[in-house]
Design brief:
alpha/beta, inorganic pyrophosphatase (n-terminal core), Diaminopimelate Epimerase, Chain A, domain 1, 2 domains, six-stranded mixed β-sheet, 14 helices
Length: 353
């Protein structure tokens, strides 16, 4: 067997040696990703599963809850075990695993209701992630917060372990979906020349990037389109003097438009797209909490803001958070924080030195 080697600048060969050491003796592998899974979470889970199965491993993909219906096209998505639908089967897979992968999340609390079961797993944890502030639960990890996506890092992992030839057109499409969505269709500053070189290699292996884009962003249901229109017209608040915009949806709003997982994807970017807006927040009411998405352009860190006020985290220009308060209280808190946001934008843009 060829020794692991670094084929990506953010993936060290020494970390891959540790990965290989644990994988060599493993028979049962569990692949996990975060609550409210996006394309990076689901795509990397399925791509890694395809590679590991090709090496003879028994693999189970597990998610805390269902992904966006826009990801239904992904090969293998129907076989993912969902904790909220079958907790017994999920726990069995977690406890049976010799090796467990943590993909696209930096702490076990990101697993939501699946976190407690994951903490009792006895196998070795291996992490592949690009979020800031990773916890120390993994035995080994490939982590770099500078990277565009977990999918880009996972390409480096699979290729570095000698599996580049196993990345066929199907696996490439899964990885590309994660890279495309986590970079805002490659417009974020995390995109590097290396990102594009990885895509070029995947295109050489049969990636149909147009088909992936259309599968995710193409055809949409009328209910989803109506929900977005309602949110923009009735629930968007723009504060030009603070260079900030908010959007929120109540549980009643979402029920009115027959909400399904993923219907609100992209709403925060609609707010950020308003002329003059540099910080945007989207908040939606769920059964047990209010979930929030934060976005910014420029040097203002929504990660720091979300972490300080809403138990959140993520990236400099894209973060998430949550609150157990009511949607009304959350929105009132956000309005009260407008002067702080404006001051933060001003400080971030002030000349250095």
């Amino acid at each position: 067997m060829t020794a692991p080697q670094s084929v990506h600048s953010m993936v060290d060969a020494s970390d891959l040696v540790e990965f290989q050491r644990h994988l060599d003796g493993a028979h049962h592998i569990a692949i996990t990703s975060h609550r409210s899974p996006d394309a990076d979470a689901v795509g990397t889970s399925l791509a890694l599963a395809r590679y590991l199965r090709a090496t003879g491993k028994e693999v189970t993909c597990l998610l805390p809850d269902a992904p966006d219906e826009a990801l239904d096209w992904m090969p293998g998505v129907e076989d993912i075990v969902l904790f909220d639908r079958d907790p017994g089967k999920a726990q069995d897979a977690l406890h049976r695993a010799d090796v467990l992968f943590a993909l696209d999340y930096n702490g076990l609390n990101r697993l939501g209701p699946m976190a407690d079961a994951a903490r009792t797993a006895t196998g070795a944890w291996l992490m592949v992630d690009h979020h800031m502030g990773p916890e120390d639960f993994p035995t080994a990890r490939v982590h770099d917060a500078r990277c565009s996506s977990t999918a880009e890092l996972l390409w480096g992992v699979i290729a570095g372990l000698g599996g580049k030839d196993a990345v066929d057109a199907t696996s490439a499409s899964l990885l590309y979906a994660g890279m495309m969505t986590d970079t805002g269709s490659f417009r974020f500053s995390s995109v590097s020349s290396e990102t594009h070189r990885v895509i070029a290699e995947m295109m050489d292996r049969g990636l149909d990037h147009t088909a992936v884009h259309e599968a995710i962003f193409g055809e949409q249901s009328m209910d989803r389109m109506k929900l977005h229109a309602f949110a923009v017209v009735e629930r968007m608040e723009v504060y030009p003097e603070f260079q900030t915009a908010f959007v929120h949806l109540t549980a009643e709003d979402m029920a009115r438009f027959h909400y399904r997982a993923g219907y609100t994807e992209g709403l925060v970017n609609r707010a950020l797209g308003v002329a003059g807006v540099k910080v945007a927040v989207f908040a939606k009411e769920s059964t047990d909490r209010v979930k929030m998405s934060f976005r910014s352009v420029g040097d203002f860190s929504v990660r720091d803001f979300a972490e300080q006020h809403f138990d959140g985290g993520g990236h400099h220009n894209a973060a998430g958070g949550a609150s157990t308060e009511s949607i009304g209280v959350v929105m009132a808190r956000l309005r009260g924080l407008l002067p702080e946001i404006a001051a933060g934008i001003q400080a971030a843009e002030a000349p250095k030195g």
